Amino acid sequence: MSAISEARGRTPRRSPRRRTVDTSRIEELLTQASDIVLAEGFTTITMDQLAQRLGCSKATLYSVAGTKEQLVQTITRRFFITAAEQIERAVAEEADPRQRIRTYLTGVGTAMRLHSPALYDDMVSYEPTARIYRKNSDAAARRVQEMIDEGIRAGVFRDVDGTFAAQVVAIAIDAVQSGALLQSTGLSAGDAFSKLGDLILDGLSRPATS
Question: Any idea which of 21-35, 145-159, 171-185 has the lowest mean pLDDT?
Answer without folding.
Answer: 171-185
